Here is the input.
Amino acid sequence: MSVVQAVPEVLPPLLEMRGISKSFPGVKALDHVDVTLHPGTVTALIGENGAGKSTLVKILTGIYQPDGGEIVVDGVPVHFANAEAAIRSGITAIHQETVLFDELSVAENIFLGHAPRNRLGLVNWGAMNARAAALLTSIDAPISPYTRLKDLSIAHRHLVAIARALSVEARVVIMDEPTAALSYKEVEDLFQIIERLKRQGKAILFISHKFEEVYQIAERFVVFRDGRSIGSGLLSQTGQDEIVRMMVGRSVEHVFPKMDVAIGNTILKVSGYSHPTEFNEISFDLRRGEILGLYGLVGAGRSEFCQALFGVTHPSAGALELEGRRIDIRSPADAIAAGIVYVPEERGRHGAVLQMPIFQNISMATLGKTTRAGFLRQAEEFALARRYAERLDLRAAALSVPVGTLSGGNQQKVVIGKWLATKPKVIILDEPTKGIDIGSKAAVHAFMSELAGEGLSVIMISSELPEILGMSDRVLVMREGRMAGLWERDGLDAEMLVRAATGNV
Here is the structure.
């Protein structure tokens, strides 16, 4: 295993984590890991789910204390007994699921817990709103400090989270999957903010599964695998293949293992599907064994259209034919009965019940198969779940453990298994690899190809161009609720799709 050697920086490190270890009962989460952060530099923390990234962030922010090793800030060893101690040292984190409060104003969210006070110890509302406005202006956020958080878009909520981080005079900013719910334009805006933070001399730890983002915004990297720091160095001197080998301990030759499948006859015909506010005049044929990629920017109407196919919402016009027979889908139950299933983007909120065990989640949509005389037979539930867990190579200690204890990739497998148990004809996968690591992505892609090879038809919504280009037989692009084009796989390139999605044709 070759390890990339770091090139010395002009500026000394702002923060170093040396030989950090952390164990939980039966698990060695971190084993003598090293991370170095330099001022004015973005360092990408890369690793599969379960590699120890989250544990390291919790140690760095004072939530956990390490069992061994030391944290050094400006050359001086420090100890963070709690989150407040980390904040006093200028360390703050912006998480993928930022904890903010809908009913409070933007300013109140920014200064929650450390609002400026007057001589009587009361909140100085004028000073708080003025400081919030200044912070928002510093990151070019077009937001009023008086606006209620619930009235903001997801992208603007991220800006509030960044302003909150800067309100404590942060010197080290941790960004954990900050682009997961952002559109292409919003990601570009976020990267401009990051460049501004770099110019201010802040050290940034950037955690992402998206290699194209890592290479665009970060200068340095550190790779974790199985709780160990495997390699670090400059991204400009390290190719993606080398980083993948560090991550998974092997070469992943085919991240998008698309099988050559004989495409059959039309199984689903969509004609003029429309909704009063979300999409209009969507028409296409889906063929047996085909993977149809559905691409577009966030807000293009892709998920809303597919939710209508699944009966979550009702179209105002249009028709569906399945295997040449007209069908009317008014509810998800109608869609399931017809053979159409939908794996949602937010699997933790809409696809699975995280507190329930794996076997009950997998059998949830097919309880008729495991019920006798009105009573559920747990042994049959286990047998059904075991069949699909084995087929999907689900990694879990037992089928009785809660789904919420699994990694993102394994949670996705549980949701897919639940729907495969219904024996569908069409499966809709909404951002199927969102937030999961490179190894799990390859496994999901391989299984997607297997499903197509077995004659199942797949509609795959994805915002990741490599995934769309690598897995689709055809690509349908949506823009502002309308079809912007439908292309065959051959001759398709990323620039063509982006132009169609943005209207820059």
Observations:
- Residues 350-423 form one domain.
